Amino acid sequence: MLNHLWGVIRDVRLSGNDVVAFTAPPVHVIGIWQMVAALMVGGSIAVVEEKALHFPRALVDVLRRTGTSVVELVPTVLSWIVQQVERFDTDDVLPSLRCMISTGESLRPELAARIRARLPGAELVNAYGATELSDDVAFHTVSRADCDESRIPIGTPIANAVLYLLVAEGKKWRAAEHGEAGELWVGGLPVSAGYFDDPDTTRANFFLDEFDPHSPTRRLYRTGDIACFREGVAYCMGRADRQVKVGGTRIELGEIEAVLLRHPQVEHCAVTATEKNGRTELSLYYVAGKEASTEELKRFLRDSLPTLMIPRLWVRLDHMPRNGSGKTDYHGLSNAGPSDLQERLSSLHP
Predict the structure, then answer these.
(1) Residue 344 and residue 350: Cα distance in Å, rounded?
(2) Which of 177, 236, 261, 323 has CA 20 to 30 A from 106's CA?
(3) pLDDT at residue number 59
(4) Single pTM value for the model
(5) What is the secondary structure of 211-278 as a DSSP string?
């Protein structure tokens, strides 16, 4: 773990002058580096109480008051910070902040552009990791050009980590071609030993590393994420288990979300798939400004996507349900109520 932390320290360029915000629950793997990394180089940490993470004004106040220079949060909370900063007439609301790290979920290009515009003094980094690894294993510093693309890269691996992109062919795997989508695997020092007291799940997700005979762990972790490499940089395209077949065509639910999130009125959205009478039906849950009607958003999707990718059921929400890590709670969406029942009923047919 310590060797992995040195890799993070190098990539984030931590020094004794830094103050790292401790925002994660201590039981989460992300909390380890937030507690320890700064102290390893003579820096300090600023403990952010959980209640402050739910109120943008309180969170921005804590970051400003403590002189925080590095903070790592999920994109949803980062968007709250930007919304609060946008209330001020100056770009110097958080003068000590030099690095904002986005992790846990996909960072939207639109949000990245807002962060860069309103917090010009802070470097924006998109990170990728998993609980089964010793925190983040890839970083990418977001540029202005990245904000014009459909996806923000997850970047390149940190020191002591290796990323593999594999494609299943029958019972075997092969390396993905340049630009070809495949499943992302991680090797190297950050790979954990598996799940505690759960050998079956461990065997399903952890494998012998046959690529690198010098791997310190000799293990590979199968992330379940679909990705591709472009010019040596990795792009995450969503979960393999979020690929579904509609009308005989395999589609990625995250692609629908990515397109709709380009609409300026859409704040958050999530697409789910259910089986009904032998057919796969798509449902879309979204949070958007009142100016955007369901019909307008459907037209927006139709301009970029084929008909089979247009969800049948649309549900407008006041707030997107979140789990304990701040990520979208896809399992809780079925219990989320629409803010406008009539709009839900009138939008059953695309």
Answers:
(1) 12
(2) 177
(3) 95
(4) 0.78
(5) S-TT-SS-EEEEEEEEEEEETTEEEEEEEGGGEEEETTEEEEHHHHHHHHTTSTTEEEEEEEEEEETT
Provide the CB-side half-sphere exposure for 104 (13 A, CA): 22
Question: Are 93 and 42 contacting, i.e. CB atoms less than 8 angstroms apart?
Answer: no
User: Looking only at Cα atoms, what is the longest distance across the chain?
Assistant: 61
Q: Contact, 110 vs 148, CB < 8 A?
A: no
β partners of residue 185: 164, 222
- Phi–psi pair at 242, nearest 5 degrees: -105, 15
Write out the H or E segment, with its range, that includes residue 184.
strand 182-188
Distance CA 189, CA 146 (A): 29
Rounding to the nearest 10 degrees, give the CA dihedral for residues 13, 14, 17, 19.
130
pLDDT at 115: 95
Pairing of the two strands 243-246 and 233-239? unpaired
Question: What is the DSSP code (8-state) at residue 176?
Answer: P
Residues of the chain falling short of pLDDT 70: 1-4, 324-326, 334-350
- Sequence-distant (6+) residues with CB within 8 A of 60 are 81, 84, 85, 93, 94
Please write the tens of the pLDDT for every residue from 168-187.
888 889 999 888 889 999 99
> Cα(88)–Cα(120) distance, rounded to whole angstroms?
14
> Residue 300 has what pLDDT?
95
Secondary-structure percent of the chain, ordered helix, strand, coil, rounded to 5? 30, 30, 40
Instruction: Give CA–CA dist 257/75, Å, rounded.
Output: 15
Instruction: Return the pLDDT at 2.
Output: 63
Q: What is the reported pLDDT for 347?
A: 40
The predicted-structure confidence for 267-278, as pLDDT tens digits, reads as follows 889 999 888 777
Identify the pLDDT of residue 243.
79
